[in-house]
Amino acid sequence: MDRELFALEERIEQFITLCQNLRAENQELRTRVASLEVERNRLNEKIETACTRLESLMERMPEQ
Prior knowledge:
By secondary structure, the chain is mainly alpha-helical. It has a domain at 21-56. It contains 1 helix and no strands. It has one helix spanning 2-60.
């Protein structure tokens, strides 16, 4: 019986460690996703600015 309780205790400790590790990894991933979303928005703004500038340049070009 003692062995069974000891084995159960070890499995519970392993489970707790796994949960803590997964929680930490999840937080890291949430932070990374937030950072990547900010970067994506910044790049989209740059693309929009470039498109606007190109359209403006194309309008000023003489037609051939």
